Amino acid sequence: MKPHVLVTGGAGYIGSLLVGDLLRRGYRVTVVDDCLFGAESLLAYFGHPGFRWVEGDVGDELVLRQALRAPEWGAPEVVVHLAAIVGFPACQA
């Protein structure tokens, strides 16, 4: 069985492309994203048996604890950190 992968920022452009590719290759994927810009890019995966969704900010300890506990799959073996603040104006706040 392929590893369980945690993708932070998985609803973003790069994250959503990676999630789709991982699922097609047979990986089990947990996505953590705060959906600041929506999660439409992931809608097709919500029924996929290899997809798990945790909504929230990666800076929130409780959200991360939830993401790291997947009773049916165990803890992720790989973490791909793509969560970021997007755009120069957002970084100025």
Write the topology of this structure.
Blueprint: E1 4-8, H1 13-24, E2 28-33, E3 51-55, H2 61-68, E4 78-81, H3 88-92
Parallel strand pairs: 1-2, 1-4, 2-3
Integer count of domains: 1
Distance between the termini: 43 Å
Q: What is the string of SSEs from the N terminus onward?
A: EHEEHEH
**Mind telling me the CATH class?**
Alpha Beta
Radius of gyration: 13 Å
Give the number of DSSP strands: 4
CATH superfamily: NAD(P)-binding Rossmann-like Domain
Question: Could you describe the 3D structure shown?
Answer:
The protein is an alpha/beta fold and 93 residues long. The protein has one domain (4-92): Rossmann fold (3-Layer(aba) Sandwich), CATH 3.40.50. Helices cover 27% and strands 22% of the residues. It has three helices and four strands, in the order βαββαβα. The protein has helices spanning 13-24, 61-68, 88-92; strands at 4-8, 28-33, 51-55, 78-81. 28% of the residues are buried.
